[in-house]
Amino acid sequence: MFVITNGRLITEEAVLHGYDLLIEEDRITKIAPKGEIKFEEQIEVIDAAGGYISPGFIDIHSDYIEHMAAPRPTSLMNFDLALRETEKQLISHGITTMFHSLSLFKGSDYEYKPIREPENVRKFIDLIDRTHRMKHLVRHRFHARFEIDNVEEVENLKGYIKENKVHLVSFMDHTPGQGQYRHLEIYRNTVKSYNNLSDSSIDVLIHNHQTKEKLSIEDIKEITQLAHDHHIAVASHDDDSLEKLELISSFGTTISEFPITLEVARRAKELGMYTIAGAPNVLLGGSHSGNLGAAEAIQYQCIDILCSDYYPAAMLHSIFELVENYGMDLVDMIKLVSINPAKAVKMDREIGSIREGKKADLLIIEKISDDFPVITGVFVDGKLIQKTNYRI
Prior knowledge:
The protein is α/β, with parallel strands linked by helices. It folds into 2 domains: 2-54 and 353-387, Roll (Urease, subunit C, domain 1); 57-173 and 214-344, Alpha-Beta Barrel (TIM Barrel), CATH 3.20.20. The protein has 14 helices and 16 strands. It has helices at 64-69, 79-92, 118-130, 154-162, 184-194, 199-211, 217-229, 242-250, 262-270, 279-284, 294-299, 314-326, 330-335, 339-344, and strands at residues 2-10, 15-24, 27-33, 44-47, 52-55, 57-62, 95-104, 139-147, 168-172, 233-237, 255-257, 274-278, 305-307, 362-369, 372-380, 383-387. Strands 1, 2, 3, 4, 5, 14, 15 and 16 form an 8-stranded mixed sheet that branches. It starts with a strand and ends in a 5-residue tail after the last strand. The relative contact order is 0.16.
């Protein structure tokens, strides 16, 4: 049993001052004005020192595990080590539920990533599944990012879904000339940044991509229906047109990841879809691919969710960047990394907000300077898994 006191509670409705929060076993059991909860001997008191108490962050799109497992093209680390070291970093950034977004790519024009080989993806999926039955820190989930030219892996994807080892499916198409690389010059520059290829060689790559075999509409519908049968949310990636949105929405896709323009993001919202942007986009002041700026879209209320994408620290810092430099409301910004992603992946009954009866996934956020927020306390399932004390 714990009582968290001397903090500012960020609920779905407001920031509450002068309230204490009681944790019993894995649940939040009482939120009451300071003094109403009696500090009995069996209760451990956690002093929030004037900091914010927020829900744990839920990151539903991050390929950070790929870097931790394969930090160099020729270096493949032990997967168990990679996952355990990753979760230690995640809690320091406030991420208590992580959807590891492993890519099922057919190939890459950039650097080779051995983690994306089918046998390694399978090993990681099985490892993520085993975390539910072994000691761990955060809540691990698997986000299957499926490139639609990877037709050879369709049956494996279906198998993972049927084995209940998939928790989110997204369909991706990185063909140059549309989506993320709708501007071919950006594609050319990206390829050149990884490989010393001539323009003529890149022309061949573009032609090969634009003429390759891809999943049919019926294939995508079948996989989407299978995901729905297993209560799994389905996302589309890099939506770049209203026509594409209409099509993927008709399949039952409920999440639009990284919409390319403000117009597309706005239409996705009108269709009842959740929209996702990357938190690094906020910190960098725009998209590294020259697409939609996340901060602008949030100001226009066209983005529901922020994810870490590839940089876990960005979630915490983007929230306060939006509050302090864009004048956004803290309660609304915390929703971008807590209850909104929880709703998108159908976990909101248990986690995502500070409410009596919900799981005690909680953070204590303090400022160690005017512009630098830090995580000084982390609870997952009612267990205190990290307490950090900064010193002068």
